[in-house]
Amino acid sequence: MEELILKKVNCGIRAVKLGTKTPEEARVGYWLNRLKEINSVWYEECFDNYLKINKMYKQKIENMR
């Protein structure tokens, strides 16, 4: 189960980074919460990556306006 959740988180982060999905569409937050229940170490690492990508996504949206 842990591997599946990690895959979902990583694929969601990659989709946001590539611009094919929004953070809401990728449901990264949902999968991060599930991961937190199982493995807090992986959660923190993935959460840091998600924050970086989310910040880049928001800047990209702001630049488009």
Question: How would you describe what is shown here?
Answer:
With 65 residues, the chain is mostly helical. The protein has four helices and no strands. It has one domain. Helix 1 packs antiparallel against helix 3 and helix 3 (28-38) runs antiparallel to helix 4 (40-64). The radius of gyration is 12 Å and the shape is elongated.
Number of strands: 0
Main pleated-sheet profile: none
Number of domains: 1
Low-confidence stretches: none
Portion of residues in beta strands equals: under 5%
Care to give the gist of this entry?
With 65 residues, the protein is an all-alpha fold. It has helices at 2-18, 23-26, 28-38, 40-64. The protein has four helices and no strands.
Keyword list:
65 residues; mainly alpha; elongated
SSE layout and pairing:
Blueprint (H helix, E strand, L loop, with lengths): L1 H17 L4 H4 L1 H11 L1 H25 L1
